[in-house]
Write a structure and sequence with these properties.
single chain, about 150 residues, alpha+beta, 4-stranded mixed sheet
Length: about 150
């Protein structure tokens, strides 16, 4: 497969499948960004995260972003997967695979995709804390999105 791909899923993300699916014989570099749930945020102990998304709209916007990055940086295929549902510490929430003839463009494209994804894609994040409380992360809540 040599085209861009965007997917929102409840399934765990498979890194080997992401990289292998993006590579072609024309590529000399493959880069995988692997975003995982961490145990602390802003000084609070996190127990888990819950992601929500409007899947079809999120996938369309992720594909637009991948297309922009591919055109801007001259890469090969870019695959973007975002997981939704409850995720535990250490689980991958987002992955970006970039295939490219050269490494510099792969790094630049990957950075562009993750930064644009965080700004433009309708995915919302609610943190669950060790003390039992939950809170929508600012900039990542359906309420903030509706206010725009």
């Amino acid at each position: 497969m040599d085209g861009n791909l965007a997917l929102v899923t409840t399934d765990p993300i498979d890194p080997a499948r992401m990289l292998g699916g993006a590579l072609t014989p024309a590529d000399g570099a493959a880069l995988l960004f692997w975003g995982v749930v961490r145990q602390e945020n802003d000084g609070r102990a996190v127990s888990q995260l819950e992601y929500s998304a409007y899947g079809p709209m999120a996938q369309r916007e992720m594909l637009r972003i991948a297309d922009e990055a591919r055109e801007r940086f001259g890469t090969g295929a870019i695959h973007v997967v975002h997981r939704v549902g409850r995720l535990e510490i250490g689980e991958a929430s987002v992955a970006i695979a970039v295939a490219s003839p050269h490494r510099a463009e792969a790094y630049e494209a990957s950075r562009y995709v993750i930064e644009q994804l965080k700004q433009r894609v309708p995915v919302w994040k609610r943190e669950g804390y060790v003390d039992g409380q939950t809170e929508w992360v600012p900039g990542f809540s359906p309420v903030a999105e509706a206010a725009r």
